[in-house]
Amino acid sequence: MANNLFFACCIAVGLALLPFPYLFYILLKILFFVSIIYYAIAIYQGNFDIRISILIVLAILYNPIIAVHLGSKLLWFVINVLTLVFMYNIKDKIDYKNTK
């Protein structure tokens, strides 16, 4: 599941470089938000570590209810790519944990 979410986010970020209506970017934030929440639940083992803290900050940034407006498409793209790098680094730990 973590791999599927990660690849869906990668495709969405790639598509985000194209000009789309505002609704697409809202859907992109929802996709990232759901993925981040899934990652946080899958990683949580009864104690908070730095990964959980980062995921909480990212969930606040991507939450679809109280939107964070950074004003720049380029800035959002950089944040999306950094989020993907972080998700890539922890996705194998999620898959390994869930297969045990």
Report on this structure.
By secondary structure, the protein is mostly helical. 77% of the residues lie in helices and 0% in strands. The protein has helices spanning 2-16, 22-43, 50-62, 73-99. α1 runs antiparallel to α2 and α2 (22-43) packs antiparallel against α3. The model has no long low-confidence stretch (mean pLDDT 84).
Keywords:
mainly alpha; 4 helices; 77% helix; 0% strand; 100 residues
Beta fraction: under 5%
Structural class assignment:
mainly alpha
Q: Provide the succession of SSEs.
A: HHHH
Unreliable stretches (pLDDT < 50, length at least 5) are none
What is the domain total for the residues?
1
Amino-to-carboxy terminus distance: 15 Å
Main beta sheet strand tally, sense and closure: none
Number of helices: 4
Helicity level, as a percent range? Answer: over 70%
Counted beta strands: 0
Indicate the mean pLDDT: 84
Shape: globular
Radius of gyration from the CA trace?
14 Å
